[in-house]
What we know:
- The protein is α/β, with parallel strands linked by helices.
- Helix content is 32%, strand content 35%.
- It has helices at residues 28-36, 58-73, 85-93; strands at 5-11, 14-23, 45-56, 77-81, 101-103.
- A 5-stranded mixed β-sheet has the order 1-2-3-4-5, with helices on one face.
- The chain is globular and about 35 Å long.
- The N and C termini lie far apart (26 Å).
- The model has no long low-confidence stretch (mean pLDDT 96).
Amino acid sequence: MSPLNITRSDTPTGPVLHVAGELDYAQAAALREQVGGLVLGAAQCLVIDLSGLEFCDSTGITALLAARQHAQTAGADVVLSGVPSNTLRILTIVGLDQVFTIRRD
Length: 105
């Protein structure tokens, strides 16, 4: 089991959260807490970089949806970047590739 590691960097367009490790039942609260502490402005974009993600279960997917809701409430956008192929497959199967903006980089 790899612990979840979330680091933040700021860009002119908004914050970037770099998520590495396992986003599962035991760790999803950490992402929710990190996102909940973000102050987003209208027209900003929250980028969640998943390039270091090793595993994501349904609780992790729910945490990503909560991040999207947090951004939308503030009038901001959310983008998932660097989504691993196994996670992208899950997002596609359940139709969330139509809900999230996903960048391959």
